[in-house]
Design brief:
With 209 residues, the chain is of the alpha+beta class. The chain is built from six helices and three strands. Helix content is 44%, strand content 11%. Strands 1-2-3 form a three-stranded antiparallel beta sheet.
Length: 209
């Protein structure tokens, strides 16, 4: 896992690139839209996650009290009223690449929650990794990929890959074991679906259990 120092160094490097260079390369996981802003979630080495937000210049203004302008200018007008909190559990997208991206994001959250001693929250995210991997398998086999309706219709060999993905207890060891099994299933489905970032994601998730 990444360290606080790595996170701080990454922030400074990205800020320099934003001012000097328009070529920023990482593995795209998912896009989350909230009002006029799109948040692109990127995965870098050491399983470090970077959320990059993009807002049209005409709508770029403070959206809350923690906003701090580093360079450039904001659009004139009144500050926006903060929107309601966004849940990470959006309806499962029907696009394989989006499902895969969200799976990886949930895996990162599951690991962080486990290491912080937040067992029930970690169990929630481990389940999300497993369910999205099963949804990806459904898409690959031409089955509907929503609300777990066709999980039981997957081939036995595919379902066997998900052995050990259920959390037996909210203890760190049980959470890590279920997460490891879920991540293995996720990466296998990504490879089977021929998703371009699957191999790179596998390397960058090597720090996970």
């Amino acid at each position: 896992m990444f360290t606080v120092e790595q996170r701080a160094a990454l922030r400074e490097r990205v800020l320099r690139l934003a001012e000097e260079d328009d070529r920023v390369v990482a593995v795209r996981l998912a896009d989350l839209r909230r009002g006029p802003t799109t948040y692109r979630v990127l995965l870098l080495p050491d399983a470090l996650q970077l959320d990059l937000s993009m807002t049209p210049a005409t709508a770029f203004r403070p959206a809350g009290p923690r906003f701090r302008l580093l360079f450039g200018a904001t659009s004139p007008g009144d500050p926006e009223v903060p929107a309601p909190p966004v849940s990470l559990f959006l309806p499962t997208p029907a696009v394989a690449g989006d499902i895969f991206g969200w799976e990886v994001l949930y895996a990162l959250h599951a690991r962080a929650c486990t290491e912080r001693g937040r067992g029930f929250q970690a169990e929630h995210y481990v389940g999300a990794v497993r369910d999205h991997a099963l949804a990806l398998a459904c898409l690959r086999h031409g089955l509907p990929a929503v609300q777990a309706r066709r999980y039981d219709d997957l081939p036995a060999a595919t379902l066997a890959r998900f052995a050990g993905t259920h959390v037996d207890a909210v203890e760190p060891a049980a959470l890590r074991a279920a997460l490891a099994a879920s991540v293995r299933a996720l990466l296998r489905e990504g490879v089977e679906a021929a998703l371009p970032p699957a191999d790179v994601v596998a390397e960058r998730l090597a720090a996970l259990p």
